[in-house]
């Protein structure tokens, strides 16, 4: 009987140890990324966005307790659920492909900091309309640019980037154009300048010729290339796996 009674105690002890270990792992990983960012000689300190796709809310809370406030989500449903569960001073970044029929759900999140993936004038118009009845202040947006030219990636072409940015400034009063975003091609040589990042830097120059008063951020760099992106001038890096570990396959998340 004594042995049977000890099972729940042992179970709770094991759970506590696992939770403590997981919290320490995330905190250590987060601090390592922060330190790595500090070591890069940048004109200004870049913002670290902890990307938590497919990770439980508890993992985000561990990072929050370690001082992290900017978090990124790829899927609208995950963003809606987690933003409702976690502290309201978290600043959320939507970094996935945004479907037009999901714009209202995203715009309704009160502590949404920015949508980083506006990829057309039409998408900007739809998001602007959604914000009109849901937000008291304009919403920050980045224009996503497909700098690698890969068919599987969303984003405006570099040539169209200035026009989309100009459209947002002139026709979308509920949006604030705050930056440009790109996803670099996987497998680029880290010892060389990344042409995708250099392309986004050039896009900003082109936008500034059309909109000289705009001060735009550059959101580029993820776990495998964020240091390379910082050296190229990124002001906003999106790091997930290096902080939270590998994500489970999407098929497993649906079970």
Automatic annotation (TrEMBL):
The reply to whether DNA repair figures as a keyword in the UniProt entry is no
Q: Which residues carry this modification: N6-(pyridoxal phosphate)lysine?
A: 53
GO MF annotation terms: pyridoxal phosphate binding
Q: Which InterPro entries match?
A: Ala_racemase_N (IPR001608), PLP-binding_barrel (IPR029066), PyrdxlP_homeostasis (IPR011078)
Q: What is this protein called?
A: Pyridoxal phosphate homeostasis protein
Q: Which Pfam families match?
A: Ala_racemase_N
Cofactor or coenzyme needed: pyridoxal 5'-phosphate
**Function (record text):** Pyridoxal 5'-phosphate (PLP)-binding protein, which may be involved in intracellular homeostatic regulation of pyridoxal 5'-phosphate (PLP), the active form of vitamin B6.
């Amino acid at each position: 009987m004594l042995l049977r009674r000890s099972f729940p105690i042992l179970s709770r002890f094991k759970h506590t140890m696992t939770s403590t270990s997981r919290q320490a792992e995330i905190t250590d990983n987060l601090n390592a990324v922060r330190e790595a960012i500090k070591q890069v000689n940048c004109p200004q300190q870049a913002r670290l966005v902890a990307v938590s796709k497919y990770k439980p809310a508890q993992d985000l809370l561990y990072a929050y307790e370690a001082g992290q406030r900017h978090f990124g989500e790829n899927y609208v449903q995950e963003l809606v659920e987690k933003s409702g569960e976690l502290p309201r001073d978290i600043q959320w970044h939507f970094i996935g492909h945004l479907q037009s029929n999901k714009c209202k759900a995203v715009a309704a999140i009160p502590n949404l900091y920015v949508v980083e993936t506006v990829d057309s004038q039409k998408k900007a118009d739809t998001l602007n309309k959604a914000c009109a009845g849901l937000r008291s202040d304009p919403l920050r947006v980045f224009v996503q640019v497909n700098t690698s030219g890969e068919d599987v990636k969303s984003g405006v072409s570099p040539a169209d980037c200035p026009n989309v940015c100009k459209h947002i400034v002139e026709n979308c009063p509920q949006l604030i154009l705050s930056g440009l975003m790109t996803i670099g091609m996987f497998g680029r040589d880290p010892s060389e300048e990344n042409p995708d990042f250099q392309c986004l830097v050039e896009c900003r120059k082109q936008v500034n010729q059309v909109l000289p008063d705009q001060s735009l951020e550059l959101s580029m760099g993820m776990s495998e290339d964020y240091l390379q992106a910082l050296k190229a001038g990124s002001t906003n890096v999106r790091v997930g796996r290096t902080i939270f570990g590998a994500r489970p396959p999407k098929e497993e998340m649906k079970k």
